[in-house]
């Protein structure tokens, strides 16, 4: 299976940023462990703080890859454009969040991604990404 993890704004600061919510591990450390754990998955990782770059990446992979694991971070709650991109592509998108966005501020309860996502996994810390990978592995 050919999968990509796409991370949105500020997720490059994982391990430094609000560690009480997002944990102490950097995404690179986590990603290296995940690549080792799933040797049969052809996994790629992309991160951008820029909305249009996230849209470009979704368009680029979204007609050929088997799955997109998308944490659009703050853009989840604001971006009609990323929501439209998720709708436009044929590759299924699983939306993930590290934190349980429903236990946080009201503005995090809205998602422009969810209506067009295959599914949503949130609140399990970095394990949310692994659960998303496993959902694609077990999908036929
Ligand atoms: C997040 C939740 C968002 O509300 C927030 O803006 C983030 C990270 C998460 O993974 O928990 O940057 O997507």
TrEMBL record:
Substrate binds at residues 71, 77, 84, 98-99, 108. It catalyses: 3-dehydroquinate = 3-dehydroshikimate + H2O. It comes from the Bacteria. It is an enzyme of class 4 (lyase). Its EC number is 4.2.1.10. One of its GO terms (molecular function) is 3-dehydroquinate dehydratase activity. Homododecamer. Catalyzes a trans-dehydration via an enolate intermediate. Belongs to the type-II 3-dehydroquinase family. This is 3-dehydroquinate dehydratase. It comes from Winogradskyella arenosi. The gene is aroQ.
């Amino acid at each position: 299976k050919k999968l990509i993890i796409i991370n949105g704004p500020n997720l490059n600061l994982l391990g430094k940023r609000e560690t009480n919510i997002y944990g102490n591990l950097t995404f690179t450390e986590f990603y290296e462990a995940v690549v080792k754990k799933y040797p049969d998955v052809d996994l790629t990782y992309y991160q951008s703080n820029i909305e249009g770059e996230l849209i470009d990446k979704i368009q680029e992979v979204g007609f050929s890859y088997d799955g997109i694991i998308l944490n659009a971070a703050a853009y989840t709650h604001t971006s009609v454009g990323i929501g439209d991109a998720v709708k436009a592509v044929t590759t299924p998108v699983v939306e993930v969040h590290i934190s349980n966005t429903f236990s946080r501020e009201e503005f995090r309860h809205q998602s422009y991604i969810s209506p067009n996502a295959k599914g949503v996994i949130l609140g399990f810390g970095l394990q949310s990404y692994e659960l998303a990978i496993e959902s694609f592995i077990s999908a036929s």
